[in-house]
Amino acid sequence: MVVDGLEHEIEKPQKKQRNYYSGKQGYHTLKSQVLADQKTGMIICTAHGKGRIHDFNLWKNSQIGIDKSIECLADKGYQGIQKHHENSRIPYKKKQKQKLSLEEKKFNRQLSRERIVIEHIHRSLKIFRVLSSRYRNRRRRFGLRFNLIAGIYNYELNLGYHQVAE
Fold first, then answer.
1. Which of 51, 60, 78, 140 might form a disulfide with 22, Cβ 3.0–4.6 angstroms?
2. Cβ–Cβ under 8 Å, residues 90 and 76
3. Gap between the Cα atoms of 74 and 51, Å rounded
C-alpha cells in the first residue's frame, strides 16, 4: 500500500477561514488522502479534511484499518506512523546540522522509486479540472466528487487506459 495526501485550492471561505488556510500552499485548501495498491495502482481508500490539517492527523482521523501484514509506504509527512502501523516505511529526515549517511540516502531513493506510483495517481486524478483548478462548489460535496473521480480512475484502469509503472 502507498499513501499520500494532496491539497486542492478553494475559494476563500466567508467564515472560519483559518481552518482552511494552508500555510504551505499560501491559500485556502481542502486536503484529500489517497491509499492505493502499489502493484495494481488501484485506489483503495480516500479521506478528506480541511486544508490546515496535517497529513498524519488526517491518517489518524480517517481510522483506516489496514492489516498489520501489509506494508505501507508513506512520505515525510507521516512521521510517527510506525506507532499505529508497525509495518510501514518512511524516508529518513536529516537531523539538524547533520547530513544523511550514504545508506540513508540510498534507502530514501529506493523508497521514492517505490512510491512514485502514488504520484502518478495524483497526476491522473488532476487531469479532471475539478481537482486541478480552484474548487468553486460546495465544500461539503468535495468528498463525494473526489470519490466519483477516483471511481472513474479505477474503472479506466480496469479497461487498460492507464499504465502503472512497475
1. 51
2. yes
3. 19
Q: What percent of the chain has pLDDT over 70?
A: 96
Residues with Cβ < 8 Å from 108, sequence gap 6 or more?
Answer: 91, 92, 100
H-type alpha helices, 49-135: 55-62, 81-84, 102-125, 129-132
Report the half-sphere exposure of 140 (CA within 13 A, side-chain side): 0
- Tracing cell 499504465 back to the chain, one arrives at 163
Q: What are phi and psi of 58, to 5 degrees?
A: -65, -40
Residues in Cβ contact with 69 at an 8 Å cutoff, skipping those fewer than 6 apart: 87
Strands 72-73 and 88-89: parallel
Q: How many CA atoms lie within 13 A of 78 on its CB side?
A: 24
pLDDT in tens, 40-86: 889 988 888 887 788 888 888 887 777 788 888 888 888 888 888 88
pLDDT at 142: 86
